[in-house]
Every structure is written in C-alpha cells, then in structure tokens.
Amino acid sequence: MKQQTRAMLQLQDDMNSKVHSAWREQGNAWYRAIWIECGELMDHYGWKWWKHQTPDTEQVALELIDIWHFGLSILLQSGASVDEIADKVASELDINTDQTDLRLDVEAFTAATLNDQAFHLELFGRLMAGVNMSYAELYRRYVGKNVLNFFRQDHGYKDGSYRKIWADGREDNEHLVEVVEALDASDVGFSKAVYGALEGRYVK
User: Fold this and answer.
1) Is 0.90 topped by the overall pTM?
2) What residues have CB less than 8 Å from 103, skipping those under 6 apart?
3) Closest CA relative to residue 169, chosen from 204, 140, 195
4) CATH second-level architecture of 2-133?
5) How far is CA 112 from the centre of its chain?
6) Which of 34, 100, 183, 184 has its CA 20 to 30 A from that of 193?
C-alpha cells in the first residue's frame, strides 16, 4: 500500500508541476475543488426526492478519483515528506463505514473539508467503502486518470489541438478503461505502460 501511495504522490506532483512549476506557492484552493466534486458526486448518486433516480456508482467512483487527486495535492502541499504522507495514509485511511446512506457520508466529508480546508482521509475511506472501492482499485483508477491527463497535456490540450474523440469515434476515457483493464496494475512500470498504450491507440 505504501509503495502505491508513494507512486501516486509522485504522479500527482509531476502533474501539478506540469501545470505550474511552482504549484506549491500558488495558493490553489484544493479544498474548493473537492467540495465541488462532492456536489457532482451527489448528482450522480441521486438526491432529488421528487423524481426517480438510480445511483450511477461508476460515475460516483470516477468522482472519488478526482477528489483523490485534489486530496493528494493538499497532503503534498503540507510540506510533509512522501514517506510521511505514505505512513499517514496507511494509518488513517480505513475503508469502512457503518452508514447505509452514502449521501450522509458525503455530507460529513464535505462539511469537514469546508471547516478546515484539509483532506480527511478517514472520512474519504468511508466514501470508498460506500461504493465498495478497494485501495488497489483506487490505485488502478487513479494512475489511469493521471496518465490520461498527462497524455492530454502532451498532445495539445492547452492549445485546443487535442482530439478527445479518437479515430474509431470513441472518447479517450473509453479507451483508458480498456487499457487499464488489460495491464497489470501491480507492475512497477504500470503508468508508463498505460501511456504507451494510449499513444498507440491515439496515432492510429
């Protein structure tokens, strides 16, 4: 688990540095990004009592991955070392909940985030448990999304030349799902393998 955490922290630092080399000094409101994502998560889960809604757990899981990106950024910006953060994650991230209504756990997590602008690992673990997401699944999904973000940046995302719809008419996200499922997430070269596979599909 600690090895996977260290790998994700490095990927997050790399991604943030690609956007701005001095990202730690920018004062980015990571907590705000987190609570906005929580609102989007609630929309996918369903909260409107006046209409029938079926929870879209796949989309909920994707929102959790986005939240994890911002949470890692908060932890990195704290000034703690990668090893210290890995120890913190290992000791505080308990993937377990006694709450049967995910929405209540989301609200508790959001309230805590807004209260002190920190990343609450123990409350995030409850959200993971709410959609039956293991740490291995969090890692696989996170690395895939992080690599796709890098891939987009490297292929013209900023200047608008990137093609989100690829030659076969499917979005890059759809290709990503197939790529990460076909590769071994426990391999130390997993992220590089994902990038290479995406590149091979994109140029066709």
Assistant:
1) no
2) 42, 45, 47
3) 204
4) Orthogonal Bundle (1.10)
5) 19
6) 34
Query: Phi and psi dihedrals of 165, rounded to 5?
Result: -95, 120
Q: Look at the alpha carbons of 82, 40, 38, 94 in this order and tell me if their dihedral is positive or negative.
A: negative
Residue ranges covered by each domain of the chain: 2-133, 137-202
d(CA 141, CA 144): 5
Helix (H, G, I), strand (E, B) or coil at 106: helix
Report the DSSP beta bridge partners of residue 171. 165
Helix (H, G, I), strand (E, B) or coil at 141: helix
| Tens digits of pLDDT across the chain (204 residues) | 899 999 999 999 999 998 889 999 999 999 999 999 999 999 999 999 999 999 988 889 989 999 999 999 999 999 999 999 999 999 999 999 999 999 999 999 999 999 999 999 999 999 999 999 999 999 999 999 999 988 998 999 888 999 999 978 888 988 988 898 899 888 888 999 999 999 999 976
